[in-house]
């Protein structure tokens, strides 16, 4: 049997810092406006592999976005429910969702909606498309960081507030 591996504490100091935070923040300013009635709360903005963890919060009904992503997306519903027009299932509170790469789908929140909150781990990018599937925009970890910086500066937290979520 091999001897246990000895870890040099100096090498551990060179590692990235962990992130430990209350997922649903107590300070409302941490929520970054995405669209009217839609916010996101960054949890981990990954500039190494390209992707992010965030909470998506929605307080309105209707179509939120039609999009495609080139890599996998994972979701966990904390509150409320949502669905994709292209599928017959509903993501319910407490539910887990895996979205395969490549699929185009349209996120909808139905009436009555008080509040929907889902944690999404998006890898790669969100590619927004129109009804015909033509690309009309995108988001990646770098556009997310820029949105956060602009919002946190505006609400008085300072642009660098986002840095605690960036790795
Ligand atoms: Fe999606």
Poorly predicted tracts of residues: none
Spatial separation of the terminal alpha carbons: 37 Å
What is the radius of gyration computed over CA atoms, rounded to a whole number of angstroms? 18 Å
Overall pLDDT: 94
Number of strands: 12
Q: Describe the biggest sheet?
A: 6 strands, antiparallel
Helix-strand makeup class: mainly beta
Strand percent estimate: 35-45%
- Contiguous helical run count: 2
Question: What is the string of SSEs from the N terminus onward?
Answer: HEEEEEEEEEEEEH
Bound molecules: fe (ii) ion
Shape: globular
What is the share of helical residues? 10-25%
- The largest sheet has its strands arranged as 1-2-3-10-5-8
What is shown here, in short?
The protein has 167 residues and is mainly beta. The chain contains 2 helices and 12 strands, in the order H-E-E-E-E-E-E-E-E-E-E-E-E-H. The structure holds fe (ii) ion.
Account of the 3D structure:
About 10% of the residues lie in helices and about 40% in strands. The chain is globular. The longest helix has 14 residues, at about 140-155. It has about 170 residues and is mainly β. The strands form two sheets. Strands 1-2-3-10-5-8 form a six-stranded antiparallel beta sheet, covered by helices on one side. The protein has a six-stranded antiparallel beta sheet with strand order 7-6-9-4-11-12. It has two helices and twelve strands, in the order αββββββββββββα. Bound molecules: fe (ii) ion.
């Amino acid at each position: 049997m091999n001897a246990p591996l000895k870890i040099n504490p100096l090498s551990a100091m060179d590692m990235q810092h962990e992130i430990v935070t209350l997922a649903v923040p107590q300070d409302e300013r941490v929520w970054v406006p995405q669209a009217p009635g839609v916010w996101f709360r960054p949890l981990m903005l990954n500039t190494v592999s390209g992707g992010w963890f965030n909470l998506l919060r929605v307080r309105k009904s209707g179509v939120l976005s039609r999009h495609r992503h080139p890599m996998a997306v994972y979701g966990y519903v904390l509150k409320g429910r949502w669905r994709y027009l292209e599928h017959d299932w509903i993501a319910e509170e407490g539910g887990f969702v895996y979205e395969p790469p490549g699929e185009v789908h349209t996120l909808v929140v139905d009436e009555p909606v008080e509040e929907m909150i889902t944690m999404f781990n998006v890898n790669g990018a969100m590619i927004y498309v129109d009804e015909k599937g033509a690309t009309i925009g995108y988001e990646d970890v770098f556009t997310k960081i820029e949105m956060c910086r602009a919002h946190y500066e505006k609400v008085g937290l300072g642009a660098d507030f986002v840095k605690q979520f960036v790795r």
